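Practice problem: R-spondin-3
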Amino acid sequence: VHPNVSQGCQGGCATCSDYNGCLSCKPRLFFVLERIGMKQIGVCLSSCPSGYYGTRYPDINKCAKCKADCDTCFTRNFCTKCKSGFYLFSGKCLEKCPDGLEANNHTMECASIVHCEASEWSPWSPCTKKGKTCGFKRGNEVRVREIVQHPSAKGNPCPATSESRKCIVQRKRCQKEGKGKKNREEKRKKSNKDESKETRQESKGRAARRQNREQRENNNKTQPKKRKAPNKEQNLAPVDTAH
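Answer key — structure tokens:
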């Protein structure tokens, strides 16, 4: 072993030197060169840092640098995240998205254009005027629909979600709520009063008939029975009309 190479290294190095740092790594670790000032030193990491991708070989695992416009990559030709000012599309970093796609500034990716979609129209509402359904002949009726898919930045805008049209109805008078309620209350009280009056009259009638019946029964018990008067015509003697 070279005098400058040490076997008792720290930080995952299998071999190292005082000047160059790690020269080789322990199994499954990645070797990468880091620049410190004017020199580069070797380090051993469990995963490659941002801007690098890992390659495995039988003798050593290395971290290779991604392309200049790529922040993280899977291989040198397949980027997974772009640096600022670039949009990711199919593993590549582009300054401008292809035709038919639009740039998503939130994810920094090229995405498909999404157009607005609306549901079917609802049935027409009842004919109304100033919020009422009576007291007029000509009014308006409306129908609505909902937005089921909002558009992206370059997508087609959403259509109107409501429509109205003129309508004609058979005119009828509106019943005032307060007056109608008062009339219903008066009718209810009157009905209850009439029912109470009839009930009282029926009760008085039954009580009077019961009292008369009891009085007749008492009179029949207290008065003696009258004897039947003899027939005067039977007691008269026959008159002799021969003389």
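Discussion: The first helix runs from residue 177 to 222. Students who identified this feature from the tokens alone can consider the problem solved.
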